[in-house]
Model the fold of this input.
Amino acid sequence: MRWDQLTENGGDNRTAEGGGTGEKAALFGADSVTTRTFDTPEFRGITFHEVRARSIVNRVPGASRMPFEWTVNPYRGCSHACVYCFARKTHSYLDLDTGLGFDSQIVVKTNAPELLRARLGSRQWQGAHIAMGTNVDCYQRAEGRYGLMPGIISTLRDYANPFSILTKGTLILRDLELLQQAARVTDVGVSVSVGFVDEELWRTVEPGTPAPRRRLDAVRTLTDAGIGCGVLMAPVIPFLGDHPDQLRATVRAVAASGATSVTPLVLHLRPGAREWFMSWLGAHHPHLVRRYERLYAAGAYAPKWYQRRITRQVHELAAEYGIGPAQRGMPRRISVPQEPEPAVPTQLTLI
Done:
């Protein structure tokens, strides 16, 4: 495994955030890594690499499609084990496997809260919006043991720094009171990722996540508590989760959860994720392999005509079920002014 000279943006020749004048800045050295395993049912088969990171607030590359500039990611790798996760490629920067290794070799930045407090307290920091859950899920199972998010949210609250969270994890409800406190002093956005409510599909493509209905229960709890919560309907999986009846069932369930919005996002297959997903597809749905090769022949994204079709169908269903901006008397929606919904362009392992 390679630790030394790993830079924040993932490659050996890129400059880490906070790296100063352009020199390479390693995230952490080999002498700062402690590897642990826990013989409990929820962590069986998972290895945790505890590290003392050198930076935690990451600048998003300028070429990115993301509508935000800064992120915080306290973990690398994700036990949610979503077969389509776009973040799988990041494990290759550590010479770790992007398949099962991504699901079971989790890097934990144990000093994330203290690094964030130091960064937000510096004179150089201007209070920009910080997005979380944009690479791997900050409320994956590891968070139940390491508890990094309360310190992170508390720091953002103390500095009144705007932030957003995208998650598939119901563990976010543990931090509900902290979210409410933060929302009283700054802009807070929360989105939950639910691409479908088909339980058979969920069990095969998102085996480490809470069930979709449980995630929607979390949306209801957040909304009832005054934290307006949108749903990122992602990913919509071609030929497996895109039938009109499936889309209707999902939007209907999202509406019943009290979500403030629903935003569809079609599956995209970047290098690293593409190979793992296509291997899974060949094992579980071999008759679809050629169809996927044709649909994604031009690259990581499905054709525009297909994306527009899915978006139109979901928006029509959303209008039918009355999902839209909050009205008077409804729980208020907390968002970042004059910015697109932070989660819209992101697919989570969750996204």
